[in-house]
Amino acid sequence: MQTLQPRQIAIRASVSDVVDGEFIERDRDKRVISPHGVEMKRVALVGFVIEHYVSEADGDKKRYEYITIDDGTGTISAKAWDERSAHLFHGIQEGNLVLVVGMVRKSGDETYISLDFVTELSDPNFMSLHLLERYKTILKRTGLQLPDTSMYQQEFLDFSESSQPKEAKPSSSRKTAPSKKTKSSKPKIGGLAGEILSFIQENVNPDGVPMKDIVAHFEEKGKKSQDIQKKVFDLTGDVVIYEVKASHYLPSDM
What we know:
By secondary structure, this protein is α+β, with helices and mostly antiparallel strands. The chain is about 25% helix and about 30% strand.
């Protein structure tokens, strides 16, 4: 009797975690290792739909449909085939903010998502929550234990039908960059976090300051790598800095 394989937990990720990661395939085992070292088979992504393509069935050719999403770190396509695709993508339009869940796959040079489901999101705060939980996942899965201080205690999304967001109204605007804070609203940042912020500000370049450079600089001062990375993620979660691409950071007030 054939045993059913347990469904993989979907790990919160950014698009760059997937497309800039290392794809590994052994027999039927397919996974990607993100630039941060997180192993992922099934992922949850949040982004804006920038393309929606449909190819109807023709003879032996199956119906094929996909959307391309952009979360500010990169773009990736989520694909489905046969009549199932019509159901999965029903009501999804370009410009929508969506949650995409599926298995990471690769064909030729393209890394994509084999879609399990996609749903539109009406609350733009879901993007911030998603990114905060992504940082927690990176820290926990790379060996750092965090104090239980976040108001959001969920590391993974338990994607059952009951947990999916309710049907939402169409999104009319696109948000791809963190909101900027005025100088008067910024709290004074001290300690290691303040030193990291100053280092990033002093080494600004269009590609962002690499995490490895930040870690190397402060390790020379006797700081631990995990403590340095945690402070970087704390600064990102507080929107003091932002990730311009995988593991590269810039001040949010630029």
